[in-house]
Amino acid sequence: MTRVDHLVYGTPDLARGVAGIAQLLGVTPTPGGQHPGRGTRNALVSLGVGTYLEIVGPDPEQPAPVGGRMFGVDALAQPRLVTWCASASDLDGLQAEAHRHGVSLGAVASGGRRGSDGQTLSWRFTEPSALVEGGVVPFFIDWGPSPHPSATAAPGAVLIGLRATHPDPARAERMLRALHLDLAVTSGARAELIATIDSPRGRVELR
Predict the structure, then answer these.
(1) Tens digits of per-residue pLDDT, 169-207?
(2) CA neighbor of 27 nearest in space, from 16, 19, 38, 35
(3) Helices then strands (H, E): number in the chain?
């Protein structure tokens, strides 16, 4: 694993997604907050220092934005890992290097949300809706001076490993190497992420 900031677990219904993760891990996710203008909100589980699981779904208090909600949660039939995020500092330089290698990361933008505790978090990221190679190639985030969400997310679980399947694993791995990322990708019918997590329920797999 290389620089995993967080895993994104998309769900068509946030309460349902939170309940499923609580049952799988034996950890009740911490309410996160709204993503203004994106039509989503989240809940979080810490996966160790500097890493967390984000459960994200539609926010009933916000209208669906033009083009649909973030991470394609509107189109999901079942909750699943939809992508992952890697930490980085020089996002503009990273995007330029990715372009030189034929990897089309999303545009660098700013984001923010107000948590359920009233604290405002802000960050810069490469637009996550790009979902490069079905989410096997991550988007990138720079938290700057904001506290990392893993510090206040529900504790008790640790990320042990992350791997992926892809219809063209050589192409996906070539893109990952161009971004200086080490993620094992094997052949599969579709792009899929598989996380191995140590939890109060034992060692489990999340897909």
Answers:
(1) 999 999 999 999 999 999 999 999 999 999 999 999 999
(2) 19
(3) 3, 12
Q: How far apart are CA 172 and CA 140, in angstroms?
A: 16
Question: Is CATH 3.10.180.10 the classification given to domain 4-156?
Answer: yes
Cα atoms in the Cβ-side hemisphere of radius 13 Å centred on 146? 21
**pLDDT the model gives residue 23:** 98
Q: Where are the domains of the chain?
A: 4-156
Other beta carbons within 10 Å of 19: 16
CA distance 89 to 67: 29
Backbone angles phi, psi at 73, to 5 degrees: -65, -25
Q: Both tokens of residue 109?
A: 């933008």
